[in-house]
Amino acid sequence: MAARWIGLSRPKQNKKRKREKMHDVHHGLRVFGIAGMLLFAAGLNFAMYPDALASVVGLEASPQGFVPAEPQLQAAAPARPFVEPDPDDVHLLAATMWGEARSEGEEGMRAVGHVIVNRIGDRFGADLETVVRAPKQFSAWNLGDPNRALVMHPERYATGGVNQATWEVAQTVAYQVLSGQSVDPTNGALFYHTRAISPYWSRYGQGRNVIGAHVFYRDVPDQPRARRYALVRTSATPARRLGPRAGRVHGVIQHAPVQDLPAPRTVSVAPSTPAAPTPLPVSFASAP
């Protein structure tokens, strides 16, 4: 009976040994694969960075032509020196920013503030007030603009709610811009307009940058359109004469042709010759 049970258990032992061998083979292949990957990574690293191989084996590194040079980090730009701004300039800049872009939040007002400061110079004005108060440059200061009252007296309107919150942000941003502690998000822009309009000079704009609801331009060169307009105005072309109205044709007012007046008649008068003087009578007295 014992021999019979032993004979029955031998196939199970053979299967178990085969499974153990297969497991050893798989494990060996796995270890070999991991080692190969490590060796490949080390070789690639030494090929790209020969200095590392030289430090390991104690040899001098030889230059490799196909290895790109490591980029050198540029030194950080020095921070702008702090300048204590004039309180009046801070108030004027904050009011202009608030009137121009208070609906755009801090980012939009900061962009407008930098455009104003970028304009200070020989081209637009030597100081902040000259730049801001220039005719038809910043719409919030135009006569008849609804924002003119706000920029002239912001404290009267910023009494609570969103107006007060945005006015406080505008003052903080204006102080940072004038003191040199703000980064210009417009990259030195000098012009801007809202995205709702497309002025004629925008086609000549350079360095276009969109921030919120405004489009900024680094510069807009002088347009040739102004020169053409000046040439037309100074030309000696006579104005067209219109006759009396003669009704409408397809909604367009028509005028009767102008009848030229006859040329005035010229009468030639011959120059008159002066008449010869009449001789005076001569009387002779008789002798006594």
Plain-language structure description:
This protein is mainly α. Among the domains are: 2-57; 87-224. 44% of the residues lie in helices and 7% in strands. The protein contains nine helices and five strands; from the N terminus they run H-H-H-H-H-H-H-H-E-E-E-H-E-E. The protein has helices spanning 2-48, 50-57, 87-101, 105-118, 128-132, 148-152, 154-157, 161-178, 224-233; strands at residues 191-194, 209-211, 214-217, 245-249, 252-255. The strands form two sheets. A three-stranded antiparallel β-sheet has the order 1-3-2, with helices on one face. It has a two-stranded antiparallel ribbon with strand order 4-5. It is elongated and about 145 Å long. The N and C termini lie far apart (225 Å). The model is unreliable at 60-79, 228-232 and 282-288 (pLDDT under 50).
**SSE string:** HHHHHHHHEEEHEE
Q: Tell me, what's the shape?
A: elongated
Number of helices: 9
Task: Indicate the proportion of strand residues.
Answer: 5-15%
Low-confidence stretches: 60-79, 228-232, 282-288
Classify the helix fraction into a percent range. Answer: 40-55%
Main sheet: which strands, in order across? 1-3-2
Described by strand count, sense and barrel closure, the largest sheet is: 3 strands, antiparallel
Radius of gyration: 48 Å
- How far apart are the first and last residues' alpha carbons, in Å? 225 Å
Could you tell me the number of beta strands?
A: 5
Mean pLDDT: 75
Decide which structural class fits the backbone: mainly alpha
